[in-house]
């Protein structure tokens, strides 16, 4: 999708795509790292990594460690501020909104064909999340 058309996609629609992209990256990573785990155990690990709380922490990490460009941070902030007042079961409204910001950023990068950048950000998130275990 070109920049002109992607600018017309609402932030929460970008988050819709980004949520799926994020989940696929995390699930692939888990299968590669833990090929011996049963699907139920993989599912539990995946739920921890793709939760709103984990995604909000990942956005915070990317921002604070200088892994985001100014433009990427603006995309995340815009989506974060447009997120609805509803929240995930196990997250605060702030965490839910920050998670939406990260998802929108990943969705925008993916839809614009910037797979190298998606890969770099997801790899950073994975390495960071593993260091936290």
Automatic annotation (TrEMBL):
<dbReference type="InterPro" id="IPR008226">
    <property type="entry name" value="Mini3_fam"/>
</dbReference>
<dbReference type="InterPro" id="IPR036389">
    <property type="entry name" value="RNase_III_sf"/>
</dbReference>
<keyword id="KW-0690">Ribosome biogenesis</keyword>
<protein>
    <recommendedName>
        <fullName>Mini-ribonuclease 3</fullName>
        <ecNumber>3.1.26.-</ecNumber>
    </recommendedName>
</protein>
<comment type="similarity">
    <text>Belongs to the MrnC RNase family.</text>
</comment>
<keyword id="KW-0255">Endonuclease</keyword>
<keyword id="KW-0694">RNA-binding</keyword>
<keyword id="KW-0540">Nuclease</keyword>
<keyword id="KW-0963">Cytoplasm</keyword>
<keyword id="KW-0698">rRNA processing</keyword>
<keyword id="KW-0460">Magnesium</keyword>
<keyword id="KW-0378">Hydrolase</keyword>
<keyword id="KW-0699">rRNA-binding</keyword>
<comment type="subunit">
    <text>Homodimer.</text>
</comment>
<feature type="domain" description="RNase III">
    <location>
        <begin position="1"/>
        <end position="114"/>
    </location>
</feature>
<comment type="function">
    <text>Involved in correct processing of both the 5' and 3' ends of 23S rRNA precursor. Processes 30S rRNA precursor transcript even in absence of ribonuclease 3 (Rnc); Rnc processes 30S rRNA into smaller rRNA precursors.</text>
</comment>
<dbReference type="Pfam" id="PF00636">
    <property type="entry name" value="Ribonuclease_3"/>
</dbReference>
<dbReference type="InterPro" id="IPR000999">
    <property type="entry name" value="RNase_III_dom"/>
</dbReference>
<feature type="active site">
    <location>
        <position position="19"/>
    </location>
</feature>
């Amino acid at each position: 999708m070109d920049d002109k058309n992607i600018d017309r996609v609402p932030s929460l629609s970008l988050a819709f795509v980004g949520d799926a992209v994020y989940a696929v990256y995390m699930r692939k990573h888990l299968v590669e790292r833990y090929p011996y785990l049963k699907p139920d155990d993989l599912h539990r690990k995946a739920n921890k990594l793709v939760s709103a709380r984990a995604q909000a922490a990942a956005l915070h990490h990317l921002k604070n460690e200088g892994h985001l460009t100014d433009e990427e941070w603006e995309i995340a902030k815009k989506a974060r501020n447009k997120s609805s007042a509803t929240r995930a079961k196990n997250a605060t409204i702030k965490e839910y909104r920050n998670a939406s910001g990260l998802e929108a950023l990943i969705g925008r990068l993916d839809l614009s064909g910037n797979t190298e950048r998606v890969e770099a950000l997801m790899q950073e998130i994975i390495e960071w999340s593993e260091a936290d275990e």
